[in-house]
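Morning run. Coffee first, then this:
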Amino acid sequence: MKVMVGGTFDPLHDGHRQLLGRSFELAGPAGQVVIGLTTDTFASRKVHPIRPFAVRKAELETAITAIGYNVPWTIEPLNDRYGSAIESDFDAIVVSEETLPAAVEINKIRRGAGRRKVDIHQISCVLAEDGRWISSTRIYRGEIDIHGHMLH
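And here it is:
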């Protein structure tokens, strides 16, 4: 199964790790995972500063390699909400509650272009100690660390 997933991954936190883990689990050893990593231009819409694409890509590669998934994977630049998911031949997309609307939109665009819909797999967002979502924005604000532990 060919699985797509996308994000800014900055900083790479436990929610991202769950998203990636589910993607590799779905793909399985005979499958493939394509990770869309937001470009600096696209990521600049975030409310907090984002590290450069090359730095985020290197961190993502290191994390995936350290886990040792037995699944082929690639990272491609993501210039907008859809990336190659509109034209690519793939089977599933893995999203969080936050990114579900983009996946629904991708399927609408695919259907309108005469392409088959892809399966959407939504993971639950990982909660921090306070019961709220772990997010890069909360980490940047100094509320929590990448594992959701409260910092003050």
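The mean pLDDT is 95. Good start to the day.
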